[in-house]
Amino acid sequence: MMNKIKHFKIYLVYPVSILILSSFFYLSGCGNDTVTNNNQQTGSDTNVYVFDTIMINQWVNSNSLSSADLNNGKAVTDLSTIRDIQMRSANNNVSFSFRDGTFINPAGYECRFKKMYTTDKFDTVSVIPGGLDLGNFPDQKTDAYGLFNATSNQHMVIGFYLKGKIDHNITPHQVFGVLYLLYGAGGGFSNYSQYISVRINRDGQNHFVK
User: Fold this and answer.
1) C-alpha–C-alpha distance, residues 209 and 49, integer Å
2) Is 155 helix (H, G, I), strand (E, B) or coil?
3) Which residues contact 176 (CB under 8 A, 6 or more apart)?
4) Per-residue b/e over 140-168, b at no fewer than 16 CB within 10 Å?
5) In 77-207, at which residue ranges do the beta strands (DSSP E only) sit?
6) Which ranges of the chain have pLDDT less than 70?
7) How far apart are CA 69 and CA 194, in angstroms?
8) How far is residue 74 from each of residues 3, 68, 197, 198, measured CA to CA in Å?
9) What is the pTM of this model?
10) For 140-174, what is each residue's pLDDT tens digit?
11) Are 93 and 58 in contact (CB under 8 A)?
């Protein structure tokens, strides 16, 4: 009788030990070292950030919110060193364009632009045509795409690459995005404000829909 009990204990301990070891290896594989590529998920892309309405104001002085940090989707002052773009006028504040953040001191960050197209459906824009090679973003200014004001060139879509942010190790990956001229307000005797929408991918992927 004692031998049967011993054999039963051995048979019981063996599968329990296998179960414990299997659980240990499974949990070890789910630690912080596990790499997940969210762009291969079928659900929401957590690398895509959407900034629906950013207001950039006409330059009046160094305190004007005439620049933007596109990586974080916010307007910043003209002399902010985290700026990626500045809005400027080439014709006495009648019409405007964007340039990257390196044109005045203290310098901000280099941003490269690419004109895409004009559309009333920005929410359907999912990729930058032509890919993400640096040569596909040739410009540091957008004036060649046409100046904008409250009645001209609204709904233009501009692709961009935050080259300065990755060059200076501000972001861990390349950041690409699409910028949309939503609408403009003011001008003439009042200061002009340009409202933009921005979508970025912080994982360096050509994908801009959540």
Assistant:
1) 9
2) coil
3) 128, 132, 159, 160, 161, 162, 200, 201, 204, 205, 206
4) bbbeebebbbeeebbebbbbbbbbbbbee
5) 85-89, 96-100, 112-118, 156-161, 176-187, 190-201
6) 1-43
7) 15
8) 76, 6, 10, 10
9) 0.79
10) 999 999 999 999 999 999 999 999 999 999 999 99
11) yes
Token pair 């179960």: residue: 19
- Per DSSP, what are the bridge partners of residue 161? 112, 176
Task: Please give the Cα distance from 49 to 33 (Å, whole number).
Answer: 24
91 HSE (CA, 13 A, CB side): 11
- Bridge partners for 86 per DSSP: 67, 99
Spatial separation of the C-alpha atoms in residues 75 and 64, rounded to whole Å: 10
Amino acid at site 69? D
Q: Would residue 59 be called left, alpha or beta, if left means φ above 0 and alpha means ψ between -120 and 50 degrees?
A: beta
How far is it, in rounded angstroms, from Cα 86 to Cα 190?
19
Nearest C-alpha neighbor of 186 from the set 58, 59, 90: 58
Q: Find out whether 48 and 199 touch, Cβ atoms under 8 Å.
A: yes
Token pair in block for residue 92 = 């006495």
Q: Which two tokens stand for residue 51?
A: 């900034």
Which pair of structure tokens corresponds to residue 191?
């200061």
Would you say 194 and 156 are in contact if contact means Cβ atoms under 8 Å apart? no
Close Cβ partners of 100 (under 8 Å, ≥ 6 residues apart): 84, 85, 86, 108, 109, 110, 111, 112, 113, 140, 141, 164
